[in-house]
Specification:
About 75% of the residues lie in helices and about 0% in strands. It has 13 helices and no strands.
Length: about 325
């Protein structure tokens, strides 16, 4: 692949406003994908009975889908190519993203989910926005104004309500979920720095590729390799479906992160909780009316984040 050709996923230096708006729209698409993925994964993991085996199969599928998509787009000369790292720091950063963000965090989250209650896990995972905000200010130079801080408060309150409450007990399962969340927050900061020079496709494929290798190795070490080669028809259905969705999530997520500030895209991602709640209400017959207040808080918080970013006046966030 030609690493020197301009990558269509890289932001335009001449139109920062349009670039940031595109990033916010991509983040919104990612949120919709995330909302569907969370809902479906709650069923998919039950078809396996082992969270790590399910995660491994799903992530390998996503890596293969991304590789096929990149190959097809490169062959059609759409301008989408992989960018070759030029410095040791970039290689190291990609390795960290792949091992920790693409593998270890997934194992921690799904294994923790098997031990912790759904309420505790949901709340702890939804603190991602707070950790990203705390890291993005000193490490990425992003700025948080009063309006953006208010937006984060609205988003967190809305998520707590949709999750059903907060956790006060940090047992083994809760600590594993929190650890996964912290790893994903750190991964975002590293990925944001890498995306200044590398294409979003490079970071996304590396994350899922290296992560899949690590997950397969861990599955073999656990002695569960046979489970990966003897999937039932029902399990294959879930693996293929959720794997394709994960590939879509990764491609849109890193494309959004390459164009807009980390805090902004993470905040918009919160709207995925609303999508999940709507699906649960529609499919499981759960009443949505009691949650409408929490949904409203999430939507208000998302608007407070998106409007300044859409206008791109630079008053609330640093340059991407």
């Amino acid at each position: 692949m030609n690493a020197n050709r301009r990558d269509s996923t890289r932001p335009s230096a001449t139109r920062p406003g349009a670039t940031r708006r595109t990033g916010l729209l991509l983040a919104l698409a990612t949120a919709c994908i995330s909302g569907v993925a969370v809902f479906l994964n709650s069923y998919g993991v039950k078809a396996f009975g082992d969270a790590t085996t399910y995660t491994t199969a799903k992530n390998v599928t996503a890596a293969l889908v991304l590789a096929a998509l990149i190959g097809a787009m490169s062959a059609s000369r759409t301008g989408t190519v992989l960018t070759r790292p030029s410095r040791p720091g970039q290689w190291a950063g990609l390795a960290v993203v792949g091992v920790f963000g693409g593998a270890i965090a997934f194992v921690l989250f799904f294994e923790g989910l098997a031990l912790a209650s759904a309420v505790d896990a949901a709340f702890l995972q939804k603190t991602l926005l707070v950790w990203v905000a705390l890291l993005a200010v000193p490490l990425l130079g992003e700025r948080l104004g009063a309006l953006q801080v208010s937006a984060i408060a609205f988003l967190m309150l809305g998520q707590i309500g949709l999750a059903g409450g907060t956790t006060t007990i940090l047992g083994r399962g809760q600590l594993m979920v929190l650890g996964a969340t912290l790893l994903w927050a750190a991964e975002m900061i590293i990925a944001k720095k890498l995306l200044a020079d590398l294409s979003s496709w490079t970071v996304g494929l590396t994350r899922m590729g290296i992560g899949s290798v690590v997950l397969v190795a861990w599955t073999l070490i656990r002695g569960d390799g046979g489970a990966l080669t003897s999937l039932t028809g029902n399990q294959w259905m879930w693996v293929l479906g959720t794997g394709v969705i994960l590939a879509a999530y990764v491609s849109t997520w890193f494309a959004a992160l390459s164009r807009a500030p980390a805090v902004d895209v993470t905040a918009v991602l919160v709207i995925g909780a609303v999508i999940t709640a709507l699906l649960a209400a529609a499919v499981n017959g759960k009443p949505l009316v009691p949650q409408l207040g929490w949904v409203a808080l999430v939507l208000v918080g998302t608007v407070l984040v998106a409007v300044p970013g859409w206008r791109d006046r630079g008053a609330l966030t640093g340059a991407t």
